[in-house]
Amino acid sequence: KICVISTFEDFFMERETLEQNTFKPLRAWCEKRNVVLEVVDPWSGLLHEQVHGFNGLYIPWVYMDEIEDADVNIVLLGERYGQDLPEDLVAPEATVRPWLNRHHANNRKFGSVLEIAAVYAAFFCGQDASMP
Q: Which of 63, 91, 84 is nearest to 75 (CA)?
């Protein structure tokens, strides 16, 4: 399972290029060997209007579940990280994700969805003993 982590607008072309030039041939290669390749890109198939219409309540935790479950995380970082998530939205998740609580303790904020995802992928992936 591969998860692509990026902002919606900044890396639209890069995500499309990954899909066409990397994931599509990799899927074909896997299928010939009876291997299932799952690529998760939460932004895939969404239109600009749909992304900006979200209230931000569901994406962070669906996204985090996918990132925590992935075998490989591809992080595309640019100059923007998105808006910081409200403390009251993220605090309950930090009680069930110890790594998120440690991130908050170190930074005194949770950050944006992209920041949280990138921090997990870079620093906590595979290190949190509370995860399956």
A: 63
Give just the sign of the alpha carbon dihedral 78, 92, 44, 37: positive
* pLDDT tens track for 109-125: 988 888 888 888 888 77
Phi–psi pair at 32, nearest 5 degrees: -65, -20
Residues linked to residue 3 through DSSP beta bridges, in sequence order: 40, 73
68 touches 124 (CB < 8 A): no
The span from the CA of 12 to the CA of 43, in Å, is 9
**pTM for the model:** 0.72
- Please state the φ and ψ torsions of residue 119, each to the nearest 5 degrees: -60, -45
Main-chain dihedrals φ then ψ at residue 2, nearest 5 degrees: -115, 135
